[in-house]
Amino acid sequence: MTGRISDERFTELSADYEAEQRELKERAAAIQAELSKAQEATVNAKKFMNVVRRHTSFEELTPTLLREFVEKIVVHECSYDENKTRRQDIEIYYSFVGKVDLPE
């Protein structure tokens, strides 16, 4: 025996190696994308906190202040429950951090 593997075995090992390399590259790309999202969220949170720090105390909500804090407001169609009570959902999207769901 010469210590060599057969061509067939080499082909199998090579294919397995190539498949593993592809999988590792895909996983690395996915992890990098998650890291980028997390870094962007951190930067946006810092930007939002800078806005908050500039306005820790104010007497009235001015248009300038509103534009600085709020990205958009979504007002949904109203609905009525079985008691004819009107309900209308409103979503507020804050600058840099997006929609914040507060507990009811």
Model description:
The protein has one domain. With 104 residues, it is α+β, with helices and mostly antiparallel strands. It is built from two helices and five strands; from the N terminus they run H-H-E-E-E-E-E. A three-stranded antiparallel sheet has the order 1-4-5. Strands 2-3 form a two-stranded antiparallel ribbon. The mean pLDDT is 85.
* Widest beta sheet: strand line-up: 1-4-5
Helix and strand sequence: HHEEEEE
Q: Please state the CA-atom Rg, rounded to the nearest Å.
A: 27 Å
Distance between the termini: 76 Å
Shape: elongated
What structural class do you assign from the helix and strand content? alpha+beta
Largest sheet: 3 strands, antiparallel
Low-confidence stretches: none
Q: How many discrete structural domains?
A: 1
Mean pLDDT across all residues, rounded? 85
Percentage of residues in helical conformation: 40-55%
Domain DUF4368: 34-101
InterPro entries: DUF4368
Pfam family, one: DUF4368
Protein name: DUF4368 domain-containing protein
List the SSEs and their pairings.
Blueprint lengths: L6 H48 L8 H7 E6 L3 E2 L5 E2 L2 E5 L3 E2 L5
Antiparallel strand pairs: 1-4, 2-3, 4-5
